[in-house]
């Protein structure tokens, strides 16, 4: 027997055989499934954003702690270097050294002990009581490094032989006038001091941090945990993550069994030297994502409930507005058509409502020629149905009009939301401005005044409004990098040393690091990075020239110089606006862009521009 191939049923024929309710459910599924997928995609995007913000927050904390540690190291280097030059230390006046060290230790409680040792490691003086000749430190790394390098050195995690306190030791060689090593001066830093530094920072829930020495031995861990105690090595995987990098982000399960997002910073005593300290700052990844997961589930539930409610309403709507009238018309037509059967419409009588309607009208048409009265009655029935349909159409028109009004309200709400986001971004910028000016009160208002002048110069040059707004935003936070500089340097009333000035010069780069991952319609990070560059390449930190600089950075450079010279500084009185304009005019085309300099000079000399809230000599 030959098998005949079964003929495929066209999809359109299958669809036409469905009831209106089934077709409505298919249409609803086509709308609901993409909406559910969109809610899930938005939830995943929010998770990524939250992780990125957490990473940025951890890196900022790591940078802050690193800056604190650099300040500790610099202060200790200065202290030991000064002591190494004192006559009582140079000539090993043991009695005088003991008195001096004890007084300094009482004034600087962050040190466990300040002591002096001979080149063979024998301790001869100390701020703490000890038996002379009983303590030899020649096996300590910080002693060996000081002898080897004849320079400031850092040791590793130890338990002090005199102080009996866990510490990390700093050393400085004592060199006599003949260039000979005569002694080594030592300061042990109390590792418990890190807890005091941590208490100053508002840490998020699930936060943890560790500091390790060059061997990876944990110097400090907060909060304390029995699985990760001081004096034990941090996981080798954590040290491996830092190889060849000064900072970075990684994910890892910590010793306490919690998955964390970690930021790290490595620190060396000098450029090119291997790290002597590792700083790890982590946050509980589960707690970071908990809120995003809850929101995503809430969105899915809301979409599901909304979809179910919409399906129920649609089901009732179709039943009341479409299915029931058609069935009523079909029943009425069948009643009229109970008689002679003749004329047919020729339409297929499928099981759907339209097929039933065609069948009813075919039945009714067969009686039109023989029963005029019945025809009139049928026409009357049709008029009633038509009137009912028109009423339904009018009702539907009113409903659609209401829906259009709701859509218009939604567009208005979206516009209001965008405006609120813009105001929120501006408020964030103002908070950053306040943070910088709180650290550097002597330059209060400098950023805002520089931003106002930069905006006026950009307007004078005819730049588009959007770029002008970007210049104003960048000007408002161009010194944000000063958050990483010790406040005593920022407010120092005398001339800065070379080291202090080199730290100040780092604020452009630090500002770039803080802003580079911030999403913004303007290149804020790059403008901040370039605002101390000069047209001839003499600026810093990258010695950019001419067209290598953004036009926004060239404008901000001129505004920054004019405001800085006109206003007061801790180490001098304001020089006045005339001196500032003379500087711009003299170095026009050398340090400063021609067009920018000309626009600035016109503003002050022809258009009467003045800084708001600044009193200066003309």
Characterise the protein shown here:
By secondary structure, the protein is α+β, with helices and mostly antiparallel strands. Among the domains are: 74-191, 2-Layer Sandwich (Beta-Lactamase); 195-290, PAS domain (Beta-Lactamase, 2-Layer Sandwich); 440-605, Orthogonal Bundle (Hypothetical protein af1432), CATH 1.10.3210. Helices cover 55% and strands 12% of the residues. The chain contains 19 helices and 10 strands. The strands form 2 sheets. It has a 5-stranded antiparallel beta sheet. Helix 8 (285-336) packs antiparallel against helix 10 and helix 11 (446-460) crosses helix 19 (594-605). It is elongated and about 135 Å long. The termini are far apart.
Helix-strand pattern: HHHHEEHEEEHEEHEEEHHHHHHHHHHHH
| Oligomeric grouping of the chains | single chain
Question: What's the tally of helices?
Answer: 19
Looking at the structure, the CATH topology of the domain at 440-605 is: Hypothetical protein af1432
The unreliable regions are none
Q: Mind summarizing the main beta sheet?
A: 5 strands, antiparallel
Q: What fraction of residues sit in β-strands?
A: 5-15%
**What percent of residues adopt helix (DSSP H or I)?**
40-55%
How far apart the termini lie comes to 113 Å
Q: Care to count the β-strands?
A: 10
Radius of gyration equals 40 Å
- Could you name the CATH class of the domain at 440-605? Mainly Alpha
Q: Shape, please?
A: elongated
Which keywords apply here?
19 helices, Beta-Lactamase, five-stranded antiparallel beta sheet, 55% helix, Hypothetical protein af1432, 618 residues, alpha+beta
